[in-house]
């Protein structure tokens, strides 16, 4: 990051870990918040190392309840900094002190905090410093989490013995295991801190040992909410709730949709007259011009489910109706469908593990990639055997159970993204119709994104192969190239064939190399190919160099052309990179 790209204004906050300045991004003339690490932290090599690694992950976090990091770098004095979007508002800490938050509003804010934190956990990012001061309530009333990537720099607590400022987290909000070792910190540590935050938000005081029941300070807490808070504050991590997603859902069950606006509640109930008595509205997952997704609770079984509503003219209903009669462990379970004059409705299982789109924040090992890839391929192969094409496969419609099993959703839904938006398009940029082969291309694009952190891009109908792609095992490169071949007849012809090769890789490991007895239409980019061809080129250049030297010696001794030799050698050395 170049400091000249940002203008520092006044200091707006300071703590033991960092100082925060209000600034301006010069190129866009937009306000930003610039967080500069404290001097005592900047001097530690481990902190700087973690900063470089973690900041890349944190910058990928994209959630409405998380303050977005837009840049990172160093000041002229070498101190690491984050540049974040600037949000006008007050901290949750200030709101607690003002004492003006209604009880239901407090639950609403905590639900929003849980949504942001659950998203981060699914992406493999731990906050490690959850507290009211790290939550901003913006002008629209949204809770936004701060400081992802600041508190998670530490892996080793050896420096804590000599530097009191290097405590991992904030006193009073830290889980017991955080005091023992930074290496003990996990998602469960964030859950403990969340429990402290909830205790303080509802009672106005910090929990103390021996732990008191929060209902002593706030009678409305008696019952499930109080039990949930106390569960979060268990000393043993294994006794705490399993995930922030679980905590969020428990809060939603307590609220029963009371945190939603009346217009949202009415919209969610439209067209559901036949089943409204069976299901209780909990939350709005998504709502836009293409349709809506709402979270409901089955009042008889207390299980969670999702109801999708789309215009009656939209695609996807036929596929959902077929899938409601079929079952596969890697395809989302459709519990029922219904169609009216203006809309159609799909009732399906709720999956707590998030989407593959969420997980693209982190880097995938080959092993974790293979596990997910085989799950997805298994579901897609089953669909193809039942003569069903997905037609719009992308990371956002690959969902996960809480245990990590991948399931495909949204079969047959029409693509409604801009074609020039590469981040949202995993299909063909041609007029090739939806088919089993186009699904295979989409699979290849998704797999490439997982392994290289980049959506595949093409130039002159050739795949641009970057360093991350070239660094993949050779057999995996070969498979991806065949899946991404622009010529359908040269592409992998079935998902079963893809499964076969992935299974070999999983059983035999990275040493397996596929035989390249094919000529793909898509070839590597010349610009990104230098490193892989260096060895072969070196022999060529050395041979050429020897020939030129021999030729030059002949010129010197036969014609006396020393200047000619000098200029010739200079040119060739330049070509060789010397």
Automatic annotation (TrEMBL):
InterPro entries: Kinase-like_dom_sf, Prot_kinase_dom, Protein_kinase_ATP_BS, Ser/Thr_kinase_AS
Membrane spanning stretches: 538-560
Keywords, ordered alphabetically: ATP-binding, Kinase, Membrane, Nucleotide-binding, Serine/threonine-protein kinase, Transferase, Transmembrane, Transmembrane helix
Domain of life: Bacteria
Domain Protein kinase: 6-252, 279-503
SUPFAM superfamilies: Protein kinase-like (PK-like)
Positions annotated to bind ATP: 35
Protein name per the record: Serine/threonine protein kinase
Species lineage: Bacteria, Pseudomonadati, Pseudomonadota, Gammaproteobacteria, Oceanospirillales
């Amino acid at each position: 990051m170049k400091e000249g790209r940002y203008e520092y204004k006044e200091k707006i906050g300071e703590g033991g870990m960092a100082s925060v300045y209000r600034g301006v991004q010069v190129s866009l003339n937009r306000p930003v918040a610039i967080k500069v690490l404290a001097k005592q932290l900047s001097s530690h090599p481990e902190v700087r190392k973690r900063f470089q690694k973690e900041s890349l992950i944190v910058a990928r976090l994209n959630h409405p309840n998380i303050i977005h990091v837009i840049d990172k770098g160093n000041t002229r004095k070498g101190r690491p900094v984050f540049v974040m979007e600037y949000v006008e508002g007050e901290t949750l800490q200030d709101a607690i002190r003002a004492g003006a938050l209604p009880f239901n509003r407090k639950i609403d804010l905590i639900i929003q905090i849980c949504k942001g934190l659950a998203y981060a956990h699914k992406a493999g990012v731990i906050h490690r410093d959850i507290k009211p001061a790290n939550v901003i309530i913006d002008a629209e009333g949204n809770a936004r989490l701060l400081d992802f990537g600041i508190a998670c720099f530490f892996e080793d607590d050896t420096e804590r013995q000599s530097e009191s400022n290097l405590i991992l987290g904030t006193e009073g909000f830290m889980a017991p295991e955080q005091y023992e070792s930074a290496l003990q910190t996990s998602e469960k540590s964030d859950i403990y801190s969340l429990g402290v935050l909830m205790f303080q938000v509802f009672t106005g005081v910090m929990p103390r040992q021996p732990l008191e029941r929060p209902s002593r300070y706030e009678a409305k807490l008696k019952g499930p909410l109080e039990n949930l808070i106390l569960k979060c504050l268990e000393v043993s991590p294994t006794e705490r709730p399993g995930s922030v997603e679980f905590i969020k859902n428990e809060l939603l069950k307590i609220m029963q949709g009371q945190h939603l606006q009346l217009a949202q509640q009415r919209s969610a109930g439209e067209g559901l007259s036949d089943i409204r008595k069976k299901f209780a509205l909990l939350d709005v997952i998504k709502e836009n011009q293409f349709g809506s997704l709402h979270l409901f609770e089955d009042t008889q079984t207390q299980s969670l489910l999702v109801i999708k509503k789309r215009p009656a003219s939209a695609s996807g209903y036929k596929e959902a109706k077929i899938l409601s009669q079929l079952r596969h462990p890697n395809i989302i379970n459709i519990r029922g469908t219904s169609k009216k004059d203006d809309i159609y409705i799909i009732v399906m299982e709720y999956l707590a593990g998030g989407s593959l789109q969420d997980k693209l924040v982190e880097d995938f090992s080959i092993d974790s990639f293979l596990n997910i890839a085989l799950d997805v391929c298994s579901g897609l192969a089953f669909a193809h055997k039942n003569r069903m094409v997905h037609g719009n496969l992308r990371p956002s419609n690959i969902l996960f159970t809480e245990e990590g099993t991948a399931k495909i959703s949204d079969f047959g839904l029409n693509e409604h993204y801009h074609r020039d938006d590469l981040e949202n398009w995993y299909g063909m940029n041609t007029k090739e119709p939806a088919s089993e082969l186009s699904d295979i291309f989409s699979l290849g694009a998704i797999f490439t994104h997982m392994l290289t952190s980049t959506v595949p891009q093409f130039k002159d109908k050739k795949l641009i192969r970057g360093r991350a792609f070239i660094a993949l095992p050779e057999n995996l490169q070969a498979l991806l190239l065949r899946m991404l071949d622009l010529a359908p007849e040269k592409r992998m012809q079935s998902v079963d064939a893809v499964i076969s090769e992935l299974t070999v890789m999983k059983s035999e490991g990275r040493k397996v190399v596929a035989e390249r007895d094919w000529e793909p239409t898509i070839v590597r980019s010349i610009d990104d190919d230098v490193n892989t061809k260096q060895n072969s080129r070196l022999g060529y250049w050395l041979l050429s160099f020897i020939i030129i030297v021999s030729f030059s010696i002949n010129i010197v001794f036969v014609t006396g052309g020393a200047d000619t030799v000098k200029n010739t050698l200079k040119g060739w050395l330049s070509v060789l990179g010397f």
